[in-house]
Design brief:
Elements: H1 15-23, E1 27-30, H2 40-51, E2 60-64, E3 71-73, E4 89-94, H3 96-106, H4 109-118, H5 123-129
Parallel strand pairs: 1-4
Antiparallel strand pairs: 1-3, 2-4
InterPro entries: GmrSD_N
Organism: Roseburia intestinalis L1-82
Domain GmrSD restriction endonucleases N-terminal: 17-111
Length: 130
């Protein structure tokens, strides 16, 4: 076992740092995780908790190589395809529903990643969703 391998640690992450990691695909969702299922009510509650500066629980991350697991960007349905990318990413093992809801509300990560699809949609759909 190499130094630091298999070690668990507790870190405090700033929400802005989490959103940045999600935007840069440094935090990914492994494919074995279920899809996003939260209804509007659950999403409203988590947003209200954040705005009230209440704790929203912890998340569980696994540091690994990006091609270690089939994965997708948080908030997206398509799988990522990595061509031997160097470095490490963090796979979100617990907290996906919360992180997806909060990222959708407090950032434009999903909007930016969906821009390419706006070229394929009609003008009416673009006005409504993009």
């Amino acid at each position: 076992m190499q130094k630091g391998e298999g070690k668990m640690e507790n870190q405090r992450l700033d929400f802005g740092e989490i959103v940045r990691k999600i935007a840069e695909d440094k935090m990914l969702l492994p494919d074995f995780q279920r899809g996003f299922v939260w209804k509007d009510e659950e999403q409203r509650k988590i947003v209200a908790s954040v705005l009230a500066k209440m704790p929203i629980g912890s998340i569980l991350l696994l540091k690994s190589k990006p091609d270690e697991y089939a994965s997708k960007s948080i908030g997206m349905k398509e799988k990522n395809t990595y061509q031997s990318q160097d470095g490490e990413v963090e796979f979100l093992l617990d907290g996906q529903q919360r992180m997806t809801a909060l990222t959708n509300v407090f950032s434009n990560v999903i909007y930016e990643k969906c821009k390419m699809f706006s070229k394929l949609s009609s003008r009416a759909l673009q006005r409504r969703f993009f």
